[in-house]
Fold each of these.
Amino acid sequence: MFQKTAATLGASLALLGGFAMFDVEPQTAHGAGRGRVCTRDHGYLGKLNIRSEPTVRADPPVMQVRPGTPYVDLGDTVYEDGYVWHRIAIKNTSGWAAGRYLC
């Protein structure tokens, strides 16, 4: 019944007849490696918040970065708040970023 892959973890939960069914938002699969911040690819023109924990409630951000900023994906992922979070490093700082904004 559930045919979702780790690369497509995403958003909402609906309860149907006592069963939980996830309707997920596709997100790019990442792993340890390099990439760039791509907020503009998703219609968001602002800076991306890099957070201390994998949640939108982790304020203030440890840094904000512009689209196109290179990063190193450290290989850790967590699903929280409707996002797949990736632990990344930019220069000498590491933190968590929502996977939908990483390319």
Amino acid sequence: MIHMLDSIKRIPLWLKVVILAMQGLFFFAVGITLQGFYSDHQRHLAYDRATQQQKLYRNSITRLGEFRGLCTLARIEPTPSSELIQLCESASFNLVEALEAMDYPDAEIDQILSVDGQYYEIFLRKSAYSEQLLKELFQIYRDSGVQLEEGTLSYTAGRTIFVHLPDLIEKMGVVRGITGLSNSGLVSRNNLYIAKGRVTEILSSTRNTLEAFEQANASSSPSELLLDFEIIEQHIVEHFERLDRYRFMELRDPTKDYDLDLFLKATEVLDEIEQLYDVTEETYISLLASEHDRTDQLTGLSILFALVTQFLLILMFRFMLRAIHQIEETSEQAMQASSSLAKTLKQQDKMFAIIGHELRTPAAALNMQLNELQLQDGQNRRVEEAHATSQHLLDVLDDMRVGTDKSLITESRVETQLSVYRIIKEASHTLYYTANQYGVDIQVRGNSDGNHIGFKKQIRQIIINMTKNAIVHSQGTQVTLDLSHKTLEEETEYRLQIIDNGKGIPDKDVDRLFEAFERGDTKAFGTGLGLHISRELARSLSNGDLVFSPNPEGGAIFTLSFTLKQAKHEEAAAAAAAKEHAIKGKKILLVEDTATLRMLGKTILTREGAEVVDVENGQLALDAYSKQSFDLIITDIMMPIMDGYELTETLRSWGATLPIIGVTGATVGNEADNLLAKGADRVMPKPLNLDQLETALKEIEAN
């Protein structure tokens, strides 16, 4: 140790200085290297955080624009469709996810999602929040260590990539939203000019960047880039012109879903742009990360990358605008096809309504005539069977109505006294000739528990449909109607099984058995509506249902279950008294163009104690009304000279307040809704039914 110290003392001073200097340089180099590694690591962490935050912010901007646009559409529509409401809920869910990923407080999220207040205030609130996100987005890159000197090419490129692209996406969304608000009359056109001006500013900044690239790197093809950019500018101008044309479209036009379809498809294009944007973003951040260590190399790489990025931006804009153009062309074609389809469906509805009217009118007349004969000669079995058959024809026409609109199941339902067993026997008599034609024997087992209160027409229709279905489609030789019941305190639970010994129903058809127009593999003629409507009718009854099960002995079993109220003597007497009071003593104007129905209707109403004046069209009805006073008007809809629509509308315009009840033979269409819209109180199907008429009058008087 002493020897070493002596040796050190003998070292020349200059050499000691050199050694110390070398050691200092070594440790300095090590320190610089470690600091470089540490700084580089910290920069990478900062860049990673910036990248993640940028993605979260940009996702929030996109989701916020989607939410704002859809909610704006939903609130300027007079009656938003269920599809639009569902899309708004989905957009709200996506926005909440995006904001929660940014760790936004729940209270601020609730404020952002609030839709209370005026629509334009809502729009401004969401727009202000988008602007805030854009400012915070650019600040993230400033805080991440990327020092960009204003006025440099890298600064211009970075601002174009990180700010102008999301800003342009946002402002294009603002233009769409304000166009919708302007179209609905919620904002003035000046707001649209301001939004378009902002888009023009962004395009101008992008043009300046391209010109700078042209000066910095003349070896590339800036002329082509500028040419492409000019094409983009032209496309945006054309897009604005299309928005202006759309702004003058009627909001209640049948093509009102145009803006929703265009908005959603444009959103899909923006999602694809987002994916392409992620690639350019990661590359650019990695280049900026080494700017402090490789300044000379970074300048050239930044210029090259900026050119590539601008080229990608141009490609993205071209892709977006071309896609929007294709979307608009597709939307226009879809609107034309939709308009043509709507016109065809409207014509079909009108055709079905006319056909149904022409079928039901003579069927109703026949039914009323047979009913009169049955009242005169109650012992005539053939008259009874003919009346039941005509009623079955009317039930088939009712099936057509229910098949197109399920809400008609409960239309004009009337609770009357009934015997379930008697309904079953009548149904078996009605279908006797059909069963004989197919070689099927109908058997009825069981009995009912006295009289009950219920919907006789619906129960009869179910039994007729199910029994006929078993006769025609089972390919068996016997159909059994097995009725059982369980008497409770004030109700009776019924179960009717329609059992056949036919071929049964294949397992593959069971799941679709009760679907509309489903006919399985049968070759027999039919509408395919019987089972479907029967189940709907069954489930409209108290505790009602209709289910299928295979017959262990071969064939099928359909079980109808429902509950009926037991009829008391006092209720029957009260019902009879109410029935007599509803019609008796009233002066009624009957308007019907079919002479037979007019004569029979007058006979029925007169028998109930009413004074009836009958005319054959609406014009004669107006003449009669102007000369006499009436308590009730019963009118057909489809009539010559003046139909029921014009008659009802004219009477209401005169200040008439008396009840107006329409009767129609149309089985398909919206004739009933149209007449109600003109001012009628009720609409009933032909033939004129006293029970339905009395129920309607009691409801009208009660209101």
Amino acid sequence: MAIRIINHQTAVKGHVVLVLLVLLLFQTCRHRVAGLAPTVPATGQTKLMLKESLLIPSMDPEKEAKAMYEKALQQYGIYGKTLKEICKTWVTRGCQCTGTKEEVTLVCRGIGLDAVPADLPSELVKLDLSNNNITNLPNKSFDTLPNLEELILSHNKLDQIYSEAFFGLANLKKIALQNCGLASVPMEALKRVRTVISLQLDNNLIADMENVTFRGLHLLKSLRLEGNLLQRVPTEALIGLRSLEALNLGNNLLTVIKERDFPVLDNLYMLILRRNQLTEITSGALTNLTRLKVLDVDDNSLSSVPVGLENLMMLQEISASGNRIRWISKGDFPKNLVSLELKSNPLVGIKPGALQNMPRLRKLILSDVRGLNELPPLDGCASLEVLRIDRANLSKIPDHICKTSPRLKSL
């Protein structure tokens, strides 16, 4: 007995199951028979043509045909799913499911999950499980998601994250673990996701990072640690992060930043230290941050401008509002500044030359500096566009300010 196929022609856009069946027959039997050849019609649409009668010998042709048919159906089930079919079960559970059938985004935020679902679609590139009741992440919680790039687990009370919880996430770029009640950094688990670019550990209960190192995360660009209980800069954890661009240590319990607290961070351009309890940033404390462009020390207890800022030649934006700074002296700031914010400081004086000859300065904020009676000379600040002096006790504004700063738009 034999299976006989005579002059059958099938287009790629034809019935999917039949196409797969013919392809499977071709793959299985091409080493035994001849005469199968692809043809390209004039229209450019590829067709598969059986040019002559083929005879496929078989000991049990009915069984073989059935097996091939079932395999074709199975492959159709894997590769032929539409986005609607992938999303159907998740939408009924209260999730939002978007994207394409190859790249699916699944948002299951606040639907009462107490564990990571075991049947997540393998096509996921983004998964949001935030605001649920998940308490632990067992080993291989996401090992069926090889294409996942973004994982959001924030606002879950995670009591335990096993060492291989993130096993199999070979393409993960962003992981969010903020507001998870973490008392320590889950380093054993995190060191297995070496492709991570962004790591959020903010608003947890992390007080000690002495034995933590992110050294293996060579691609890490953004690290958020604000809103924890850190009393010192986690120097050891930062060593080796040569790709790091943005570091947020705001809203912790830092009081002093000393020399060498920050290791060499070649590419760091943004450092946020706002809302700590800083009384001093010593000379040389920021020396290793040679490419720093943005420094935010708002809402601390600094009584003077940190020493050494003038040596950071790439520094462009400084925000030091809400401190206890009384005097600004010549040489406190680098001349390349673009933005300087000093509002709500008890300023009593800005010495001559302190804010002069800053050709790139575009924004100067001196709001709520109630102890300041006189606006300092701004000669050499031709790019200045925004000057805020509201709620300050200035008795007069220099007559020549519009000449020295011809681009001034807001006063």
Amino acid sequence: MTGTDIWGWEGKNVLHQKCGIVFPYLIKNPTGYPLKVSEESEEKFHKGKEYLVEDSKSIPWRFEDWKLMREVRVSKLFICYEGELTSLFQSVMSPTQSKLRIVLDRARWEAVSGISVVRESVEVYPLCPSFDGVTHCLLCHAAIRDNVKEVIFWSTFQVPNNTSLPIEISGGSCSVPIEAAYHQRIKIRPYSGFGFKWCKEALAWKDLVKHPVRTIACQSINLEEPSQRLTATTIYDKEDSSVRYYPKINLRLRASIEIENLLLFHIQFYLLLLGVAFQDDGFVGLKHSQYAIVDTNNPEDFPVENRLIMEDEDGLKIKLSLHFMRVPLCH
């Protein structure tokens, strides 16, 4: 990557920002509640301005120390030595000032203070007080993306989607709302426009921990069409004993069959039922390959095959090997 490429990439972001205003942070809120965010100040008589972030919304953010920013503005009226001015600007961006204070609006919990977002990290904060013997938790994930640090507040029950289809969750979020994560069950389906119903089984977090691997079937609205099946794997820290009492889990969704191409050229593939014909033009200079069985419920009569054979216009055959492996549950 050249300097010109970097400027072309960064320049698009710079040109879309207001003159003199840079927002190095982006705060996202998929908690299920409106979120009030303010900069934490060490001065008791100075309260940082609160900003409201609605559920499933985001706002740009930057830290400003009110006292140091005032000194910077005053210093512009005088002639200062370059070294003094430089050290002053460095103090404005001091990491000790980069802490947040948040309040979950319309909720019963107290404010959460001292949230540092200086470094990329994943931190879990307990919410006080506890109710009915349950201490709910808030997860803060800080990570850099496209030269902006995204700070995401959400529950500890998340549903990463590793399929090629957009997925809907009852409640409409890839992170289950905080209280719903503990007390309620969830249902899953592909995007409603694809014509599939919600899965029949409602999933509770305790069942997901007890049985971490399962197949989720979503029936088609058109009964003549097959159901959409997804493989769901519950990922959690097995050394964390608190998982038995509170959902600190990821429910990772994957396709039942994943195909990885390790060749040096592109391929086209079709997954078909035996006996189904299809129209295929193939590649330029190549015919389509022979069929290979990759999954079967009758291995004696139809065993799984580990080789594909292609043939070009001159009759030269190319043998491609197929390697099957089970995806590790920890991934």
